[in-house]
Amino acid sequence: MKRSLLALAVIVASTAPVFAKYYVIQTMMDRKCSVVDKINTEKPKTPNDLSVVIGINGFDTREEAETHMKNVCKNEQGADTQKK
């Protein structure tokens, strides 16, 4: 299960556009959403580090990413916009 989640995260991260500046990610363990300015492509050290990119594309501005996060993650508790 962990390997398939890791594979999914790597595939999603590698297919994200190179020119996007901001991304909405969701952690797999606690399901919290956040906006980040880069995607961590390193292998997660713990299951808590595993996250997926929400949406097909990145966003040109932080405001666009935050709006998308609020719409997509509105049912998730603890959604935040902290920069990681």
Could you spell the SSE succession in H and E letters?
HEEEH
Distance between the termini: 26 Å
**Mean pLDDT score:** 76
Major sheet details = 3 strands, antiparallel
Task: Please indicate the count of domains.
Answer: 1
Number of helices: 2
Please tell me how large the radius of gyration is: 12 Å
What order do the strands of the largest sheet run in, or round the barrel if closed?
2-1-3
Q: What structural class do helix, strand and pairing data support?
A: alpha+beta
Helical coverage, percent range: 25-40%
Query: Oligomeric status of the shown chains?
Result: single chain
Strand content: 15-25%
Shape: globular
Can you tell me the residue ranges where pLDDT is under 50 for at least 5 consecutive residues?
77-81
Strand elements, count: 3
Write structural notes for this entry:
It is a single chain. The chain has 84 residues and is an alpha+beta fold. Helix content is 30%, strand content 23%. Strands 2-1-3 form a three-stranded antiparallel beta sheet. It has one domain.
Short description:
It is built from two helices and three strands, in the order αβββα. The chain is α+β, with helices and mostly antiparallel strands. Strands 2-1-3 form a three-stranded antiparallel sheet.
